[in-house]
Write a structure and sequence with these properties.
- The structure is a single chain.
- This protein has about 130 residues and is an alpha+beta fold.
- It has helices spanning about 1-20, 30-55, 60-65; strands at about 70, 80-85, 85-95, 115-120, 120-125.
- The protein contains three helices and five strands.
- Strands 1, 2, 3, 4 and 5 form a five-stranded antiparallel sheet that branches.
- The mean pLDDT is about 85.
Length: about 130
């Protein structure tokens, strides 16, 4: 009798788990207009990411400032965090090559200040000044 009770309990538990398990939601069906709108948003975001990835190590700070703005908030000299003007939630962290003994008070011109490291673009809330 005990084996029968265990077997029945196992079947009941299995059935309950299957019935109460996570249901798969059907894929969302978009109308033609919704699909076009999502495509526009995706294209816009793809262009912003292409802008962000266009800056590479070895480029100058002048090149960086053609694409990015200095992000708000407290920063060192030179600023480290930059954001895209058309989407200020897309940011990068940048490090520059400073010559030995260079004073942060007297930085070289932007054309001579080279990027030594740049982070991958990331999303972060806007930072007010």
């Amino acid at each position: 009798m005990r084996a029968y009770t265990r077997f029945t309990a196992a079947i009941v538990l299995t059935a309950a788990c299957l019935a109460l398990g996570p249901a798969q939601t059907p894929p969302r069906v978009l109308t033609g207009e919704q699909a076009q709108e999502e495509t526009r948003y995706s294209d816009w975001l793809r262009h912003r990411m292409d802008e962000a990835y266009s800056i590479q190590v070895g480029m100058s700070r002048a090149d960086l400032l053609k694409v990015f703005n200095i992000d708000g908030g407290m920063q060192g000299i030179p600023p480290r965090r930059y954001s895209l003007p058309r989407c200020d939630m897309i940011k990068v962290d940048v490090e520059f090559e400073l010559s030995q003994g260079a004073s942060r008070a007297k930085l070289p011109p932007d054309k001579e200040l080279k990027i030594s490291a740049i982070s991958k673009p990331y999303l972060a809330p806007s930072t007010p000044d």
